[in-house]
Design brief:
4 copies of one chain form a homotetramer. The first copy, chain A, has about 350 residues and is an alpha+beta fold. Chain A contains 7 helices and 18 strands. A 5-stranded antiparallel beta sheet of chain A has the order 1-2-3-7-4, with helices on one face. In chain A, strands 9-8-10-16-11 form a 5-stranded antiparallel beta sheet. Chain A has a two-stranded antiparallel sheet with strand order 5-6. Strand 11 of chain C pairs antiparallel with strand 11 of chain D, so a sheet runs across the interface.
Chain lengths: ~350, ~350, ~350, ~350
């Protein structure tokens, strides 16, 4: 059974390889009558697109989205919305070197093992470009959530070993790291630029905060809010970890410390991270993900070729030295998709 | 849309509250012709059941499983298998104190907000007892996986602030912490016993290692193996974090460090944790989860009652001072369910 | 992927063989706070149970239902409801004759081909007894639908070649055929009694009328109301055909005859049968199913055994000479499950 | 929950309105390594396209399909395949008359009730043009089925009251009715041409025969082969009935007549229509559908407008006087989708 769909009542199905004809998404379950413009979707895609700054890949991609169905006179009709982004023509010769070798950290080996065939052009289906469809769909979910009074904001919390000491949500779009601390950002940038020059990369931690969610979202026992958020985030190629609220720090805490007591005004603390028993409390939902260093580096690496012979590989092209700034809008999009789906699921339960 | 099912080609649906008539599970997609005994399932349930040692709750529960369908002359028929565990009669008076108050760290508040009604007896559907169904189903998945050559083993890696320094998989069932390091276990136990005496609790980290999996499992782009494992683990009530391979430590690594290079014999390192692009590499799958301190403590805590008045609460009854030893078989069960489902999904793709 | 679940937002999963430990169903998606008694469910099961009259099997089955979860203080909690009916002990010797032979019209051959193993006791999973779970779940859906103002009523329209000329919905439960025409019923009964004496059986047509449904239910383009009703009905073992509104008679009509025109008060005719474009119009939903003659007959039949040798078979036991009267409550139950699911789906769309 | 997807292991999701940007489909679960050309898909679309003859609409549509993903060097990669057909520019003025009126027999009224908004251009999502996506996806399923040795053929059995007396599968593509009897076809054509001149339409019956299917396909208890076929067929806008094997004629048969006995060479008769207990027997699968007269007629009809006022309507444009010839390839496509899905489901069960 294929795994290219996500969500139930609000559901997306993505398609496309980085160098096929197009990438995109079908969005199902969008409420009818929602005013929607292509510009609103494009705005989110522009936050994800390559070539934004010195800490992202200078590669240019044609990330122009088209709405092909489900819209009539500027409003959603309640039927399937196809969002498509056409690919630029690939230059086949650019992939001659990776065609026969498995790039370390990439899905080259596993795709071949799984499917017995591999579209090696720009990672094919395993390309980060696939997330464009998610971001486009997420822009629709975000718009509906905004109407519900929900805000979703993510940012770089740590990168290249530099941690943000302060959290200022107002400056995130003002620095190319999308960090929440200007001082930290100013230290991250030169470090990452140097890594880029060396042909290397680094990782980081991205944090996401969601406010305005009603209490009661989440479907026991498997589709807990944090379970679906974890799945959403771990379905991003570069993510190696997920934690909510206290996260891994809970391991050494006592119950008397960790339990969030309540008073007349609500919860006194939020170690839970906005969910109890997998259901939202109405408090801020806060989670973090671990982002691995970009696999594409231009340093020489050791690997094997299709024949199993040991070879060296040097992936050409210009890649993101740190994926954090560009994964921020993807994290937000996935969070929006999870939440909008659960809003609808809760409605369908209690009716 | 309800959330009580898990898996696709190998699928379970659980039911039951801690003090209703029964808890249990329907297991669908079990291959026909598999020899199966109730004892094989009971053996896994016995690892999960209360009352095992001084670091688990001394509470006794009737955890006897019955196979009600899908079995004929000792073999599975390929149809739905109902596994049921009857509950002992509840003593309604035992819940008078928690009936009108929200226990900190519990799902009391959120269940009431979600459903408008709450079965307050022993946490109702949010009880850890619900995982008995998962363990019972997991025992079947485990048996099939063993035939496939797959082994799944979890253990306590850290508890009460004590970290295991060594990993010895042979001693896990020989210590009541189910820790992988006897020295660490011998330090954990007195610490946790003391916390229990104080009416407090603690958390920990559980690690899981899966060996023998073929390369090629995992369904891009959403149902990546690590995404489904993360969802499975985060769907357990006490889990606050999930990481695979390098996990959160990847954040400060360089790409040239993190990328697992290959040579003639396979992968040289395993920072990936057994998966690339969401598909198994054939290497060991290794992940960790963060287990929060048990919410049920007998210390006096501050909370509010149904009327929103500030009150104190002291949950009676004897609870697990640390859930790690008992969550280990649940983690293994959920991992087995994910893997068996993906084995079947892979088969259905390539046929 | 297994096929033992039905519905999405309101979903059931059935389990059980006719001679295993139990049959039953998990019902998910029931709205919380619904008052529910075991008697309400039992009442529907009693309409389905064997031994009701001279035109049903005189076989007695223990059809007592138990609610094992999802209910608290007489109200639904919004979580999974397990309904279980224990089987009486089977008498293994009773099946010696059918153990090695394929009964004509039964699923013996196909189950063995599919699963490689066959629970031959009383048809195993293919037994009509499996529908008890559907009827039990349908009783819950029916109760909710009644609150919504929806009524669902089915009846025998034709049996043993006798057609009902009049439709009187008030007399359906007053005749053992559950026919809508007393005159027709009085002709059907002696005919069917004679067939029973001859060890033979007959078929019929059951019609179902649903009133009070709001316009707007049905999910284009695949989950049209009539598509889901057809699937629901064709999933019953004895059903060979389904038609809605004009049904097969539409084949020789003109568009100018068939199109239902509208005036100020609504639709003038109802050839559509209550749905246009797969979405309810608000008019009466009316459909019919073809019920095949019961496969179990005591006449001598020709078949083959497991070794492929030609043999004769005479199925002992007392069977329904016509399944119509007992399939009526099953048809209603399945219709209720489809409608309640679509009510919830519609809510989740427009919110 | 939206209803625009069909199938599980082999799954399609369609999108598009008749006058939006495009119509099409995502196909998931296609086995990797399958050689596939755009021409193979186009060939099936050409059988469905308008303008083929005097008994189909003379309207011309641009039915050129493009493969946008999931193909690499002429072979499927095992990932999502997007098939897209761009729409020609609509002439908005052409819809002025139907904009404010509900066309009898069409989904105008129900779409407005359901969604509160209606894309009135050419029926929007309810247009028959939506089936182009199904046919395109079905062409892929058909190719795989052919490799499995399965053939699927449908044809007009009856139209305008004329029944085919003979069944000659070789002449179906040789007559514009796609009928199985040349004599009958030669009577149907002038009748239907006259109806077209009168601005009227007629219905018919389409029969489908599937050969070469292995025994064992179908998933009890809900996803029986005939249940999934019925759903597939009843999800086509013009279909009012479905029957398999003996179908509605079973109602007046005796069990001793209807039961298909077996001998050494297999089943002696095939009243079952190729399935027992919802599982394929290996015999020919044979089913029929009732096709209603085309709703679009140019005769003056009575209806109401958006304000509920009684008005007359005359739908301009040239429509199919009988949809049978063009629904034949759609029926085949849907049957292929059901079968390929069940082949995969069976594989995933027994592994």
């Amino acid at each position: 059974m294929p795994g290219s769909s996500f969500g139930h009542c609000f559901r997306i199905s993505t398609f496309g390889e980085s160098h096929g004809g197009a990438v995109g998404v079908i969005v199902d379950g969008v409420k009818p009558g929602l005013p929607l413009t292509v510009e609103e979707i494009q705005a989110q895609l522009d936050r994800r697109k390559p070539g934004q700054s010195s800490v992202t890949t200078p590669r240019k991609e044609l990330d122009e989205v088209h709405i092909m169905s489900g819209l009539f006179e500027g409003k959603t009709t309640g039927t399937s919305i196809l969002l498509i982004l056409y690919n630029k023509d690939a230059i086949p010769s650019a992939y001659n070197d990776i065609k026969d070798k498995f790039r370390p950290g990439h899905a080259d080996f596993t795709f071949l093992k799984k499917y017995g065939i591999r579209d090696y052009r720009g990672s094919g289906r395993a390309s980060g470009r696939e997330t464009a469809g998610r971001v486009a769909a997420g822009a629709i979910a975000r718009k509906i959530l905004n109407e519900r009074g929900v805000s979703v904001i993510a940012y770089t919390k740590e990168a290249a070993g530099i941690k943000c000491e302060n959290i200022n949500l107002d400056i995130i779009e003002d620095n190319i790291m999308r960090a929440c601390d200007m001082d930290a950002a100013s230290k991250m940038v030169p470090l990452i630029e140097r890594l880029a020059e060396e042909g290397d990369s680094t990782g980081g931690i991205v944090e996401c905060r969601i406010n305005g969610v009603i209490p009661g979202l989440g479907e026991p026992v498997f589709d807990k809010i944090e379970a679906d958020l974890a799945k959403a985030m771990m379905s991003l190629g570069a993510v190696k970890g997920f934690e909510i609220g206290s996260g891994f720090s809970c391991a050494s805490m006592k119950g008397s410390e960790h339990n969030d007591s309540m008073n007349k005004t609500g919860f006194v603390t939020n170690n839970a991270g906005g969910t109890l028993g997998g259901i939202t409390t109405g408090e801020e939902i806060i989670f973090r993900i671990a982002v691995k260093p970009t696999s594409s580096i231009s340093k020489i690496q050791k690997t094997v070729n299709l024949e199993g012979e040991e070879v060296e590989i040097k992936t050409e092209g210009r890649h993101d030295p740190c994926i954090c700034p560009r994964i921020v809008p993807v994290v937000e999009a996935m969070a929006c998709l999870v939440l909008e789906d659960h809003y609808k699921r809760q409605e369908s339960l209690t009716i």
